[in-house]
Design a protein that fits this description.
With about 375 residues, this protein is of the alpha/beta class. About 50% of the residues lie in helices and about 20% in strands. The strands form two sheets. The protein has a six-stranded antiparallel sheet with strand order 8-7-6-11-10-9, with helices on both faces. α1 packs across α2, α3 runs parallel beside α4 and α10 packs antiparallel against α12. It is rod-shaped.
Length: about 375
C-alpha cells in the first residue's frame, strides 16, 4: 500500500490529541491483536492523526503492539515510563520536532539503545544526514511502501535483539571472569601465593592482587591494577640477593630454558621476608621466549620453621656426641670400680675409698644426664617448631 505525503500540520497539539481520541471512539469495534503477537512494542510519533492511524493499521496487521503519540513531549514521558522496542518518528512537528525528540531520547541512558526510524515527507539529503546525526538508525521518505517499512522495522528489531544478546553474553562472561578472579585471589590469599606475567618485549610485569601484597606494592608509585617495570620489581629484592636473581633470570631467558626456580629475600615495610619464585616461559614458533608467567610465595614462616628444625637437629647431634663421649668416661670408670669390688685380688684395698670414688663417678654421670635432659627440654620446648 502506498501513502501520500503528509503536509505540515497546523493544528495545535491539544486539537490533534482530541481528534485522535474521537476517531478511536467512533470505531464500531476495537482492533484485536493476533494471538501470536510478538513482544515487540513500537511507538509512533506524528502530529497528523491520519498518519498515526495508517501506521497503527499497518503495524497491528503485522503483529506488533502500538503506542501512538501526537506530540514529542508526550512520547518522551511515555518512553521513560515504559520503553518501547522501536520508535517511528515524524520530523515536522510543532513545539518539538523529530530531531529534538530523538536527541533527547539518545541523551537518556535507559533509552539510548532504542532504534529510531524517521518517517518524513522531507526527502532531501540534508534532512536525512541530520536525522542520522541526531541518532536515527534509518530514514523513510513519504510516500512509503508498507513492505519496505516493515522490512526495515524487522531488520532493526533483529539487530537490537542481537546486540542485546551479545551484551548479555558479554556481561555473563564478565561476571564469570570476576567470579574466577575472586576465587583465584581468595585461593592465593589462603596459600599466601601470588601470580605474575611479564612481557619480554617491554619488560613490563602485571601482578595479581596477592603478588602485590607479598612484594609490598600497591601504593601510588606502583598500583596493583597497572603494569610495572621489571626494574621496579627487582628493586624490592634484598641487595645481597639482587645480582643472583638477575643472573638466573638472564641465563634462563637467553638460553631459552623452560624456566627457573629461586628463593631470595625481599625488603618490605622495614623488614625482610623470604619468597620463593617459580617461572615458566611461553615461546614463539621459533622457540624464543615471548613472555614469562610465574608465581611468588611468601616462605618466611616456612623458612623460619626449617631453620628451627635445623637448630634442633644440630642440638640433637651435640647430645648424641655427648652421649657417646662425655657420658662414656665416668660410666667406664664406674664400671671399673664395681669390678674391683668384685675381684678377690683387690681384697686388701680400702673399700671406703673405692665407694667414695664410685659416688664421685655416679654424681658426675648424674650431672651429665641432667645436662642432657635440660638441653633436650630446651630443644623440644612447646611452640619452638610450630
Amino acid at each position: 500500500m502506498t501513502t501520500t505525503p503528509c503536509s505540515p500540520c497546523s493544528k495545535t497539539p491539544e486539537t490533534a490529541t482530541h481528534e485522535l481520541s474521537v476517531r478511536r471512539h467512533r470505531r464500531q469495534q476495537p482492533m484485536n491483536y493476533p494471538q501470536d503477537t510478538p513482544a515487540a512494542t513500537i511507538m509512533t510519533v506524528d502530529d497528523t492523526v491520519e498518519n498515526l492511524e495508517l501506521l497503527e493499521e499497518m503495524l497491528v496487521s503485522a503483529g506488533y503492539r502500538v503506542l501512538q503519540f501526537p506530540r514529542g513531549e508526550l512520547a518522551i514521558r511515555a518512553a521513560l515510563r515504559n520503553p518501547p522496542d522501536l520508535i517511528l518518528l515524524d520530523v515536522m512537528m510543532p513545539y518539538m520536532n523529530g530531531y529534538q525528540v530523538c536527541r533527547t531520547l539518545k541523551q537518556d541512558e535507559s533509552l539510548s539503545d532504542i532504534p529510531v526510524i524517521f518517517i518524513s515527507a522531507l526527502g532531501d539529503a540534508e534532512s536525512k544526514v541530520k536525522a542520522f546525526t541526531e541518532g536515527g538508525v534509518d530514514y523513510v521518505s513519504k510516500p512509503f511502501q508498507e513492505k519496505e517499512v516493515l522490512a526495515r522495522i524487522r531488520t532493526h528489531l533483529e539487530l537490537r535483539r542481537a546486540r542485546k544478546n551479545l551484551q548479555d553474553h558479554k556481561s555473563h562472561l564478565e561476571e564469570l571472569v570476576r567470579e574466577r578472579t575472586y576465587d583465584l585471589n581468595q585461593a592465593q590469599k589462603v596459600a599466601n601465593i601470588g601470580s605474575w606475567k611479564l612481557t619480554l618485549a617491554d619488560d613490563m610485569i602485571v601482578l595479581s592482587e596477592q603478588a602485590c601484597v607479598i612484594m609490598g606494592f600497591g601504593d601510588e608509585s606502583a598500583p596493583c591494577n597497572a603494569p610495572i617495570p621489571l626494574e621496579q620489581w627487582m628493586a624490592k629484592i634484598h641487595p645481597d640477593d639482587r645480582q643472583k636473581v638477575w643472573d638466573i633470570w638472564h641465563e634462563a631467558k637467553n638460553k631459552f630454558t623452560d624456566g627457573y626456580a629461586i628463593a631470595y629475600r625481599v625488603l618490605k615495610e622495614n623488614k625482610t621476608i623470604w619468597v620463593h619464585e617459580d617461572a615458566r616461559f611461553e615461546m614463539d614458533k621459533d622457540g624464543r621466549p615471548l613472555r614469562a608467567i610465574g608465581t611468588v610465595q611468601d616462605v618466611t614462616e616456612r623458612r623460619a620453621h626449617l631453620e628451627a628444625l635445623e637448630k634442633q637437629n644440630e642440638a640433637l647431634r651435640e647430645i648424641a656426641w655427648t652421649q657417646s663421649h662425655v657420658v662414656r668416661a665416668p660410666l667406664v670408670r664406674l664400671m671399673g670400680l664395681v669390678a674391683v669390688l668384685d675381684d678377690d685380688h683387690f681384697a686388701g684395698m680400702d673399700r671406703a675409698e673405692i665407694f667414695m670414688e664410685i659416688i664421685r663417678a655416679a654424681n658426675e654421670l648424674d650431672g651429665i644426664i641432667r645436662d642432657i635432659s635440660l638441653k633436650t627440654d630446651q630443644i623440644f620446648k612447646p611452640g619452638e617448631t610450630e
